[in-house]
Write a structure and sequence with these properties.
Neuraminidase, 2 domains, 0% helix
Length: 366
């Protein structure tokens, strides 16, 4: 009997939040270059619009991650706008503009239409913050007018009842142009511009208890008009004036209240950008680099899996496994495809098995 040589490969996958830490260029924003736009993600697609081009604008665009393409949608129904705030809740965009009094709007992507909703009770707001917790929206801070330039209030919007409820004020300097994100039932805000100067403090808002807790200050230093997003249980914050446009970015771990630097933005420095998260990725684009308005658009992968190979019984066989680190797929190549391959995937957390499937097209001969 002829015994067939069997080649055993065991792949050990570590899902210990090992960061791929790369900004990947995507299709440039579909509209004119701009800064001070707004954007958010719903239903697996991104939305970006308004802002300053050669003047205030009101155009509205949709980004499809699957096709890496932009499609223009119905213009914002209010006045042309800059420095507004928008968030996504249950498949709809909710937009608090700056140059439309204290009007409040909803965009429905299914009908491609805008609708006016219950008036924001906190008066007209410039450079406000917004985040989403448990299908409710939170808006606040920002500036009202020259006589009342900085606010520290917070308001909760319930789309189910189209109603507003005032929440606990931020127990710190009133400010505008702060950065904000949410993780679970907590909202986070930091940095910004106040009457006493630029800030670097950082705060956690608990929506259940309606309380604020000060956290470790943003380590990148004082700044304003930066940007922030959350992915995979971590927060990310960077860019902005500090005092010149900055390109540093930082990861925040709410479990340990610690900050870690990540890859620099692929600009010398940029402010007034738009960012949003879709799945395990974040997207960031447009803005101002101190000289030019931008239309660049980038994808950031927040986490990855590290692969290692071992238990190769054939000493002379050349095995290639890539990409490494890997996230969505792996490719295994062998120089002798007459042998059989037994592939074992081991994951310390088991959560990645549902995301990674090996098929015949992932295993190729060299």
């Amino acid at each position: 009997m002829i015994m067939k040589n069997i080649l055993f490969i065991s792949l050990l996958l570590f899902s210990t939040q090992c960061f791929s830490d790369m900004w990947i260029p995507k299709a440039n924003f579909g509209g004119p270059n701009r800064a001070d736009a707004v954007g958010c993600a719903i239903n697996g697609k991104g939305y970006l619009g308004t802002g300053y081009t050669t003047g205030y604008s009101k155009d509205w665009w949709e980004y499809d991650t699957l096709t890496n393409a932009w499609t223009q949608k119905a213009d914002f129904m209010g006045n042309s706008n800059v420095e507004g705030t928008c968030i996504g809740i249950i498949g709809k965009v909710y937009f608090l503009p700056f140059s439309n009094g204290n009007n409040f709007y909803m965009y429905d992507p299914l009908t491609n239409t805008w609708t006016m909703k219950a008036t924001f009770p906190g008066l007209q707001r410039q450079g406000a913050i917004g985040f989403t917790i448990d299908n409710k929206g939170y808006f606040g801070l920002g500036g009202v007018n020259s006589a009342n330039p900085h606010k520290n209030d917070l308001w909760e919007y319930n789309p189910a009842t189209d109603s507003w409820n005032q929440k606990a004020d931020l127990p710190a300097a009133a400010r505008m142009f702060a950065a904000a994100f949410s993780i679970g039932s907590k909202g986070y805000i930091g940095t910004g511009s106040s009457s006493s100067g630029t800030l670097s403090d950082f705060w956690e808002y608990d929506a259940i208890s309606d309380t604020w807790t000060q956290k470790s200050s943003f380590p990148g230093g004082q700044r304003y008009e930066g940007t922030a997003f959350s992915v995979g249980g971590f927060g990310f914050m960077g860019g902005g004036y500090g005092p010149l446009p900055r390109n540093d970015f930082w990861r925040y771990d709410p479990q340990t209240d610690t900050w870690t630097p990540i890859a620099l933005l692929p600009h010398n420095g940029v402010v007034e950008t738009v960012c949003f998260s879709i799945g395990n990725y974040a997207y960031l684009g447009t803005g101002w680099d101190g000289t030019n308005f931008m239309n660049n658009f980038w994808q950031y992968s927040a986490d990855s899996i590290v692969l290692s190979t071992h238990e190769i019984s054939e000493n002379n066989s050349e095995i290639m496994v890539y990409p490494n680190p890997a996230k969505d797929y792996i490719i295994i190549k062998c120089n002798d495809f007459t042998k059989s391959l037994k592939v074992t995937l081991t994951d310390s957390k088991a959560e990645w098995f549902s995301k990674m499937i090996i098929t015949s097209r992932m295993i190729k001969s060299i």
